[in-house]
Amino acid sequence: MLKRNFILSILVLIISVTFLTYNPPAEVEISENNNESVELSSIRNITSVHENLSGESFIIVNLWASWCIPCIEEVDELKKISNDSRFYVIGLLVDDSMENGKEFIKEYDIEYENQLNQDDVEVILTEFKWSGIPTSVVLDLDYVIIKTFNGPITYAMINDISK
After folding, report:
1. pLDDT tens digits, 66-124
2. CA 140 to CA 87: how far, in whole Å?
3. How many domains does the chain have?
């Protein structure tokens, strides 16, 4: 009996100390990727975008991979966006092989510009915040980010920005 009471006393002491000294984890602050006003100057060095811009255009930079299901789902929307003369679309292949990227472009009949060289893509990715793929950023003609979209985009979403 004495042994059982001693064990119960120890358990009560351990539970009490644990309860009194427990600090809940700090609350994690979830925030949007705030890229507004960030300039993606490195885009000028690896694309032909400057030759194709005119008037009231916007540049859409889309991060994608061939294995990404939401990326596949947004391809038709990106095609619509690229067919609108107000927008210039550039795809950046992320965490994937150049061969997979080429097959993806061929399979989905993608005509907008894509950068498949991981070294060139990494240079651009270091200039702004992103949290997974697909991610799209909308740039003005000075290559300054005016909006970031995390997740698949639609033509309607991009069209709303241009108004």
Report:
1. 999 999 999 999 999 999 989 999 999 999 999 999 999 999 999 999 999 998 889 88
2. 10
3. 1
Tell me how far CA of residue 137 lies from CA of 17, 38, 53, 99, 116, in angstroms: 51, 11, 17, 25, 18
Structure tokens at 30: 């979830």
The parent domain of residue 138 ranges over 43-161
Domain assignment present for residue 49? The answer is yes
Q: Which CATH number does the domain housing residue 60 bear?
A: 3.40.30.10
pLDDT confidence band for 19 (50 / 70 / 90): low
Across-strand partners of 45? none
Is 141:124 a contact under the CB 8 Å cutoff?
A: no
Classify residue 126 by its DSSP letter: T
d(C-alpha 89, C-alpha 60), whole Å: 5
The confidence score (pLDDT) of residue 62 equals 96
Mean local confidence (pLDDT), 39-62: 71
Of 99, 83, 103, 79, the closest CA to residue 91 belongs to 79
With respect to residue 21, please indicate whether it lies within any of the assigned structural domains. Answer: no
* % helix, strand, coil for the chain, step of 5: 40, 20, 40
Query: Per the domain annotation, does 33 fall within a domain?
Result: no
